[in-house]
Design brief:
Shape: globular
Largest sheet: 5 strands, antiparallel
Radius of gyration: 23 Å
Oligomer: single chain
Distance between the termini: 72 Å
Amino acid sequence: MTGYKYAVLLLLTMFMGCQTTTDKERPAPSIDIRTGSDRPELFGKNIISTSLPERDVAIHPQGKELIYTLGDYKNKKMCLVVVRKVNGDWGKPGIMPISGKYRDLEPFYSHDGDRLFFVSNRPVFNDDTRNDYNIWFCDRTANGWSEPEALDSVVNTRGHEFYPSLSEKGNLFYTARRADGIGGEDIFMSEFREGRFQAPEPLPEAVNTEFDEFNAYVSPGEDLIVFSSYGRPDDSGRADLYISRKDAAGKWTPAKNMGPLVNSDQLDYCPFIDWENRNFYFTSERAAAENSGIENIDSLKQAAHSILNGFGNIYKISLDALEQTE
């Protein structure tokens, strides 16, 4: 072997060795629901949070499964995606068998994890002319999830119903625009009594205002509610997250903006709390800082296909960090 060929072979060997070491040291993408951080961080980066729009995470009460909403770049197609834990490890995300044909979104587990509520524009009440959004549910069976059923017309009207959240009592909190509301979109509560949902009532003006209130998460004991609102004087962007708690008399206190630790100048919404691991989840359309121009087509493509392209991602922050700011 000539000296030249030997030198080339040596350089290639060194390069491949360095590359292998780098790949081994680079952490693999992972899903972590156990730990939290003191600032919002992307949840499941490169697995759940990607360049596509993601929103509406729901975590099974036993932490063995999670479901979220995934859409295309214009959200013309939206589906429910499930990730399950097998032998202690999270598997790959996949579209739920009940989803994929219609625009399905906003999952919420019952508190035993055996019933799933969600929103869909699939035809309701055997009326193929209907494509409004309604609240549906399905039950876990030995053969998977049952065929979805719509809640009855006490809840589901010819308008839109969004973002179901249920307390331990089974009371349903959701978003709607109704004639008996307070403002634009409002948050309503339908009491579950004698096996049926009762006529919904809007939450009081401590929560609902003349502006839009939507996408509310209620705690199991109905003593805390987190929701989004758009148009309030202290709104820092296209919508902010607000929080209200019940006082000693059981009345909702005036909702407070959750502040810059959570809210951005873009849409912040879809709250969810994992009480077992004390983590707060939400969706945000915040994007990477625009501090440079477009140098070439490749740089434009790179920005468009990056995770922080402004199409929405799921974020996680510890409840302890949030409580320190209240």
